[in-house]
Amino acid sequence: MKYALQSRLSRPVALVYRGPASLPGCPEAVADMLAASHWDFDIHFTGPRERVPLSQATLARATLYAQPGGDTLDAAYRHLRDQREAIRGFVGAGGRYLGFCLGGYLAGATPGFALLPGDTDRYIDTRRATVRTEDNAVVEVVWRGRPRRLFFQDGPHFEIETDRGTTVLATYPNDAIAAAVTGFGAGRVGVVGPHPEATPDWFADAGLPFPHGNDRLPACGRDLAHDLVNAVMAR
């Protein structure tokens, strides 16, 4: 069996991009988060140096494709533009796309995969943005009505129509959209500007205060990442 994507047919296959359009640690954090969800994914890294290549044939065997964080949008798109139509075809035919930070930018159109009913832009450039630096930071969001603090590194906001089957999961303090799920063809697209998949060591390595939780409010954003997964996987 060439890529071992058919070894457990009863489990949904999740592909996580790992390669030059991502940064070390980002794909692994997304994969760990997916493994901890209740969906029992059969998870594989995909990319130019992985055993599982990113291609139309590979995507055809998958349920979900996740695009993790990375460096700059233009550089990442140069690495991925040859897969643009394969990714659009996968989602349009019923696949699920998850985009975290740079993966959220790439769901937009300028440049990107054009999976959203609109486009993306930098949150730090919005009016009344609470974060203005390109460096690592902690950003406040309101996720389904509850305030949370998440790891952030120059992530997007989403300039999308909200009357076309779009669910807004989270907003920044200035009401810009921070996370949303929307339809594309027969599939669904989930995007988030901050990093709810981040683990405590991300905060420690960046010298950032860890957002401590309590009995009602978890400290880490993994519960929010799982909420995003559940929303994008919903029928």
From TrEMBL:
Protein name: Biotin protein ligase-like protein
Keywords: Ligase
Ligase found in the keyword field: yes
InterPro entries according to UniProt: Biotin-prot_ligase_N, Class_I_gatase-like
Protein source organism: Nocardia pseudobrasiliensis
Repeat among keywords: no
Gene3D superfamilies associated with the record: 3.40.50.880
Pfam family, one: BPL_N
Gene Ontology MF terms: ligase activity
Domain Biotin-protein ligase N-terminal residue range list: 61-113
